[in-house]
């Protein structure tokens, strides 16, 4: 080997040794200084509320690594109580434990020369986080003091801090909410958190591409389940994925349902309070403003997607129902009463089955009506009054297969600023067999539709808190009702047959246009019953239109209802009717037409 190479190798070896010696010296002599400064910074920046403890600080300046072993951030309960008394306590406080906090690849020379700290990675090992939330009214009413920014807290030490990546895996998280001296807890396990490109300097807080100094925060939460405070319902999801850079939130297998069976639910309630079960495979928020959500609890998003799921509502009339006015409680009015601002451009609904079931106290059966494969959009979903001044209507354009048969299309227009809940709805129903509705009619009325072809239905209504009014058109033929099951079980088959004959041939029209080729249009002006819900009022308004189109006047309706309640008497009267001649039947139909003209 030539002498010159010996000199080069010798010089490099000396330099390497010097670096390690200097690194060892600084690690040894800076360690107490770093420990003291670290604890001082934590206490000073939190007004003494938190203290930092750990078993060891492993500092290797040469490699740019530092590790806190068994670190713990502890809130001081005495300090917190004093802050409550002085009305300075925050609503939330934290107790954090870490097996290790690892800082990797920082450049000490850049810190010394330029007061700039760059860290390639920070890793949290087995973090255990306990968040305690206790609302204080003064935080809602007292004007907050001018708070220091994160940069204000570090500017005396660093001119800037840049962390490339933070990885927090397998997080155990406990959220405790204290209300009226009682605590309720939510437990989460195996949370994953990734934070990318944190920059703290004089300008970064104003960087609109960053959320609280970061370019991206990604959170993944598996298997969440929470029992609501009433002890009856439970909310859960299979997976939550949140990404602040993409501004998306995804939840899968979302479920809101009672913890018990249907029968146990109504027994526990001991009232006919609607039982709701909601399940969705996908619930997604797109272009969600996380800053508004975190700072002001406001939900501002471009789109929400609800996909592949079901909504089931049940009532049981064997239990008493608490009567109360539903005026002012329509969907749009409820949205306007929400305290937090909601502003969503479009809600997309795709492949959601809706079911309503009601158990009859009289016949001990459950009737069910379904709206299958519901899809469509809701637009301008907001309670933002300033935005609604420009466009005051929330709109819904939806369609579904009713009883998984006829295609129902309906469009709503909600005047969000109306004092009396003004709204419109119009739509249509395609061809289907009327017998499909026996699933709800037979259990609740103990009667059935024997036959009937629905050729089409169309309607156009206006409505408010007090009435629904508009036109209803119902095209059908071969409509026959069977009241056999509704009459006295001891009645002979002959008498039961006579009863059905009278109802189908005298009380209702079997087609529209009717036998005299007259087309009946329902001119609806339905006065709302205050105790009826928004959707029940809609149904009653539709039913009013159906009655008019089938030729059932109020007098005929009374007879028809009488047939269901006192079938024996009607059948006895009908025996005389069927003995009349054909000419007499023609006279009856003429009489029927006269009644309909008077009604119109």
Which percent range describes the beta-strand content?
A: 35-45%
As a whole number of angstroms, the C-alpha radius of gyration is 36 Å
Mean pLDDT: 83
Which spans have pLDDT < 50 for at least 5 consecutive residues?
4-16, 566-600
Shape, principal axes of CA atoms: elongated
Q: How many H/I helices? A: 15
Q: Count every beta strand, where a strand is a DSSP E run of 2 or more residues.
A: 22
Percentage of residues assigned to helices: 25-40%
The major beta sheet can be summarized as:
22 strands, mixed
Q: By helix and strand content, what is the structural category? A: alpha+beta
Question: What is the CA–CA distance across the termini?
Answer: 118 Å
Sequence-ordered SSE layout with sheet pairings:
Elements: H1 3-45, E1 50-53, E2 56-60, E3 65-75, H2 77-85, E4 92-106, H3 108-114, E5 116-125, E6 128-134, H4 138-141, H5 150-154, E7 160-179, E8 182-200, E9 214-227, E10 233-243, E11 248-258, H6 262-269, E12 275-286, H7 290-296, E13 299-316, H8 331-337, E14 342-359, E15 366-382, H9 385-388, E16 393-402, E17 406-415, E18 423-429, E19 432-433, H10 438-445, E20 448-463, E21 467-482, H11 493-507, E22 521-527, H12 534-549, H13 554-565, H14 567-577, H15 582-599
Parallel strand pairs: 5-7, 6-7, 13-14
Antiparallel strand pairs: 1-3, 2-3, 3-4, 4-5, 4-6, 7-8, 8-9, 9-10, 10-11, 11-12, 12-13, 14-15, 15-16, 16-17, 17-18, 18-20, 19-20, 20-21, 21-22
